[in-house]
Specification:
395 residues; alpha/beta; seven-stranded mixed beta sheet; six-stranded mixed beta sheet; 13 strands; 43% helix; globular
Length: 395
Amino acid sequence: MKSSSRLAKELLCIVVLLFAAAPQSKAAPQAKSPSSSSITLSGEVNILAGACAASGLTIKDNKLPTVVEKVRMGSAAAYAGLTAGDRILNGQIGQNKMFLAIERAGKKYTVALQYTPDNLAADAAREAARNNPKLRLAAGVTSPEQERKLEAARVLAAAATESVDWRTLRDYEIVVMVDSSGSMDDMLTSPPMTKWQWCSKEIYNLAKEAEKLSSGGLTLCTFETDHEMFANCTAATVRQILQSRHPGGGTDLATPLTEVIDRHFKKAQRKPLLVVVITDALVSNDEIENVLIAASKRLRSSKEAQFLFLQLGDDASGQELAQILDDELTTLGAPFDIVSSITSDPLVSFGLRRGMIAALTKAPETRHTKKAATPSEELARVREELRRLRAQKVK
């Protein structure tokens, strides 16, 4: 089996996509030259809009050159110094990074931007080439063999990303806590499945990867009004557990969360704890922040434990609760910032593992803008809205 570093190097050789551009003068900054096996696109480049959006850019159109219309606050593009009005001349996508040649006030610059997911470019190029005859020719897809090469590039990209992600995740004791309350039987807008079905598929895939790339199995906890805990789960065990359950009941998260924390601290030898909570955040009690604050006071540093709240579904109040726990826990009394969160759209887009990495590696300064109200006032307001929503669901 090839090492993850070798896979990453091969990925860079195979998956680099060069955006076609209008000719530049010799003085223009040049992005790194693509390898001989790269795929060159011309005309409308549909992957450009997707990669720019993943970096926080809204562009005028997906034909180069184009103009930046908006830069999302807190995004990779914002931290790189891009502003509305910058002109994108050309670009190049590599593994998890995009290089753009831009023009501003008559001067030309090159900027490097992080973007996710890693295989966005390969997937988009493959789909575009498959569905558009002109793009098939522009991408060099002139035969089934070329199609197979594009598919091989996508598979290699996914394998390399998986390996790199698990270099981070395998250092943790991973506990996946999945909401099994009645609201998890609601449908997602996209893809066409229930929240519970999405969780079952993604947690099973995560468990399969853990068997292959980590030294131990996952701990799985299902919670609603009651909860059950299963340690050292194989992928087969995870599938059996999740297939045997149907969503129902309320959402008591504080009780199982306390049990997870207590079990961890009773171990004589322990890895750092990574608790992954997948929920629509319509929780049935007011104790979650107290549990997290108490846990943080048992730590010597934030490296000992991290809690990731991954929201599934589009409930605004649930999202606000996750954001308050993410942004304001230290203001509420925790000595360390041990909570991070992401919302439903990026979670569903990335998948569970990539969503975990996105939440785990999110820098504090990229988190949500704080409200004018105090954290306590915000919590009180959000909780009142959650009570109202739960009451509506009961009727």
